[in-house]
Amino acid sequence: xxxxxxxxxxxxxxxxxxxxxxxxxxxxxxxxxxxxxxxxxxxxxxxxxxxxxxxxxxxxxxxxxxxxxxxxxxxxxxxxxxxxxxxxxxxxxxxxxxxxxxxxxxxxxxxxxxxxxxxxxxxxxxxxxxxxxxxxxxxxxxxxxxxxxxxxxxxxxxxxxxxxxxxxxxxxxxxxxxxxxxxxxxxxxxxxxxxxxxxxxxxxxxxxxxxxxxxxxxxxxxxxxxxxxxxxxxxxxxxxxxxxxxxxxxxxxx
Amino acid sequence: xxxxxxxxxxxxxxxxxxxxxxxxxxxxxxxxxxxxxxxxxxxxxxxxxxxxxxxxxxxxxxxxxxxxxxxxxxxxxxxxxxxxxxxxxxxxxxxxxxxxxxxxxxxxxxxxxxxxxxxxxxxxxxxxxxxxxxxxxxxxxxxxxxxxxxxxxxxxxxxxxxxxxxxxxxxxxxxxxxxxxxxxxxxxxxxxxxxxxxxxxxxxxxxxxxxxxxxxxxxxxxxxxxxxxxxxxxxxxxxxxxxxxxxxxxxxxx
Lengths: 254, 254
Fold this sequence. Notes:
The structure is a homodimer. By secondary structure, the first copy, chain A, is an alpha+beta fold.
């Protein structure tokens, strides 16, 4: 007896995405079903939105030059990162910031991979809005009720390596709420809030690959999920690690 | 054309695990294949190892009492956590420590869910050694070459919720090394080290569930992976966030 079985597959033959492309075009042969989770790399959302930008267009500020020098980085790239940033947490040995839509990520998640030399790919400004639009368009076009997760690849504290995470969600709650559910012994669970959206994003990221030959769309089938809004980024008030980093910064400036 | 397809399924009818149980007994009907990744919740590894311990056996130190009082926690539970801890990072509003095997986790990952009231479940002391033993025993008993990941559920910085992560690995590298691989434009990738072990652990955790009715073993099939040792926990030297928290602690004590 198998109670839970999921399958996941890549959507292949996705061409190089360019400004103005309709991402749902790539799903025409995907044989979508109701309940599928369509996981889409933010890179192609950005490319379809025309967010590939030449580094030439960024005039580095004094601050960008200072940070770039310490990191042996291109000051125009750091200027691009600053443009997406609402708070700087760590400037060295990597540039960790809070992005405008609330993600804490090195370089605000900006990437120079998979775009031409001398270009940078900005992140979507409101990835959940992109997810909602894509979800609606899938419904209109193919008549299927799916969830959409837009992913990024990001490092983490305390653990090596980067993993796929969700930055935009539509039709699926990023968190599963376990409050009120009982454990084997009838007691309340200690785990109350599970980041299921990121658990799905991580699997999809693994299947996508990062390189040439990778594929930017993965369909996950067989997962039961809830459809409600649930924030994935900690608020300033509840983010204790962010506060600790700020305190450490104040100390080093004192 | 689908290039990557994975499937994952829960192993069902796993009974309540008790001290001395052989976990491979539960895999007899799992129809394992070479290359499968067998993902096992650390809870059942701990139970099979007899690591369910009565809180009565812990005599709280002065320090445990102080921390417990601030957190409105049972001082015996905090004493149990301290026994698994090599460094305390945050004492309030949650107790974040570095465990003896290197994981940074609230309460060292100790759990009172799914054990009887008044008991705590300790984590395995060397989860990768457990993973190796289970992998060898699966090979001996069923003749299959599989990888084994032992998981825990842990919160993360900056993002809400807890997710499944790997704490023990055998036959699979926790990290995929992308160095030297080229992107779409023939440039070196910016992502160099992907935490694939945790991406698999996250998916499995999602399928396991946390509660009564959950299942502690998931088989993941169709993933290509490398078999080598690769650390999942950042070393003290490279853990910049840990250092920032230490600096903040020094400041608050000064």
